[in-house]
């Protein structure tokens, strides 16, 4: 009997999934409705766990048979033991954290690796909107008006790389995605990535040096 076909996941979630080894221990922080976690559990055989702030998201995950608890990542991540997971995922959530540096430190503490995705505030259409109209940019990655956005710590790709340098975190692999879904490797040219990437997806590990 053929397994039922699963709905394709967003391109950034697919990039994250492709970075994760089968049968790994994974914690999805801010897992939303569980789309990524469901994919990882059923198609990559991971031992997947999730934490989600919103009750609707938790209910959707639990209804799908996923192991997800309701909690606030900014306080609850401190309760997880060091090295408890092979991968800790934070997708499109870092910019909504009150203390993104502390959150990133906790991801690296409880996971052997962390995967983080975030919208790039320095994407060229955002710069153009600010320059031409003097208005806060909106896009598929930043879909909110400034007065109702949950994003309180927007950053550029260059900003994120600088924070990783401060925390001695190595970017093992990275990608940028533009508004058309085109994917580029996050290479040495941060200027190019900053201009052309609407969002970034990065695989992190502690710098052994």
What number of structural domains do the residues give? 1
The fraction of residues assigned to DSSP E strands is: 15-25%
Mean pLDDT: 93
CATH homologous superfamily name?
A: Vaccinia Virus protein VP39
Helical content (DSSP H or I, runs of 4+) = 25-40%
- Give me the Rg, rounded: 17 Å
CATH class: Alpha Beta
What is the overall shape? globular
Report on the biggest sheet.
8 strands, mixed
**Can you count the beta strands?**
8
Q: Which residues sit in consecutive blocks of at least 5 with pLDDT less than 50?
A: none
Describe the structure concisely.
With 209 residues, the chain is an alpha/beta fold.
Describe the model.
It is a single chain. By secondary structure, the protein is of the alpha/beta class. The chain has a single domain, classed as Vaccinia Virus protein VP39 (Rossmann fold), CATH 3.40.50.150. It contains eight helices and eight strands, in the order αβαβαβαβαβααββαβ. An eight-stranded mixed sheet has the order 3-2-1-4-5-8-6-7, with helices on both faces. Helix 1 (11-19) crosses helix 2 (35-43). The protein is globular, with a radius of gyration of 17 Å. The mean pLDDT is 93.
């Amino acid at each position: 009997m053929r397994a039922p076909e699963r709905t394709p996941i967003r391109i950034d979630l697919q990039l994250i999934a492709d970075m994760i080894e089968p049968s790994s221990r994974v914690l999805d922080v801010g897992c939303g409705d569980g789309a990524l976690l469901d994919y990882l559990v059923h198609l990559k055989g991971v031992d997947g766990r999730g934490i989600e702030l919103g009750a609707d998201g938790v209910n959707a995950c639990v209804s799908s048979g996923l192991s997800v608890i309701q909690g606030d990542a900014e306080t609850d991540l401190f309760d997880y033991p060091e090295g408890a997971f092979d991968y800790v995922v934070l997708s499109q959530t870092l910019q909504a954290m009150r203390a993104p540096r502390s959150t990133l430190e906790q991801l690296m503490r409880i996971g052997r690796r962390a995967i983080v995705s975030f919208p790039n505030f320095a994407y060229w259409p955002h710069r153009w909107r600010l320059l031409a109209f003097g208005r806060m940019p909106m896009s598929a990655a930043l879909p909110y008006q400034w007065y109702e956005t949950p994003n309180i710590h927007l950053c550029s790709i260059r900003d994120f790389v600088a924070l990783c340098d401060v925390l001695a975190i190595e970017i093992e692999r990275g990608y940028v995605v533009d508004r058309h879904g085109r994917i580029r490797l996050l290479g040495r040219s941060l200027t190019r990535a900053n201009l052309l990437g609407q969002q970034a997806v990065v695989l992190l590990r502690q710098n052994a040096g």
